[in-house]
Design a protein that fits this description.
By secondary structure, the protein is mainly α. It is about 80% helix and about 0% strand. The longest helix is centred in the middle third of the chain and has 44 residues, at about 60-100.
């Protein structure tokens, strides 16, 4: 039964995750955190980090991670297949239609109008992750903010905006800084 739940949950994610991995994050969060409670919000945030550090799309990495956590290797296979199957079918159909109707003004208008929705999905996911990083699962208030995470965020944002540094190095640096801060706090 759990394999069917995994498959159907990730079919929904694969079916409705227009705009790529970041746009899929709210859908993944809804399925794995809110609907099924397979992961806590902290685990979900860790999942995003792990998905960014490993090769492959976020949704597929998420499906594999959640599948393994919930039902082992069979769960990973079923969840990953559920995530990929709708995309394969949809892309095949769209490619055929796009090649036939690519010069049609209405199609170009539809594609153009989807962009703001995709940006909103990505923004929503970013705000959820930011909230989890700065406040954890607690209430959002200035007194509850994790200032270490705010400083790490600012330190990461600067090179990402000012240079062409590889984001993996920024993530690894953030992990090292956080580890050092925890070690200093534990020793003090």
């Amino acid at each position: 039964m759990i394999l069917l739940e995994l498959f159907l949950s990730f079919v929904q994610i694969g079916l409705f995750s227009f705009g790529g991995g970041y746009a899929a994050l709210p859908l993944i969060q809804q399925q794995v955190v809110d609907n099924h409670a397979w992961l806590s919000m902290t685990e979900f945030t860790n999942l995003i980090t792990i998905s960014q550090m490993t090769p492959g799309p976020i949704a597929i990495n998420s499906a594999t991670f959640v599948g393994i956590k919930i039902a082992g290797i069979p769960g990973a296979v079923v969840a990953t297949l559920g995530c990929v199957l709708p995309s394969c079918i949809i892309v095949t159909i769209i490619a055929k239609l796009y090649l036939k109707y690519r010069n049609m003004a209405m199609l170009q208008g539809i594609l153009h109008s989807l962009r703001p929705a995709v940006v909103a999905l990505i923004g929503s996911a970013g705000i959820s992750v930011l909230q989890s990083a700065f406040w954890g699962t607690g209430a959002i208030s200035l007194s509850q903010i994790n200032w270490v995470m705010v400083v790490i965020f600012a330190l990461c944002l600067i090179p990402l905006l000012k240079t062409k540094v590889n984001p993996v190095w920024v993530m690894l640096g953030a992990g090292v800084v956080n580890l050092l801060v925890k070690l200093v706090m534990k020793a003090g």
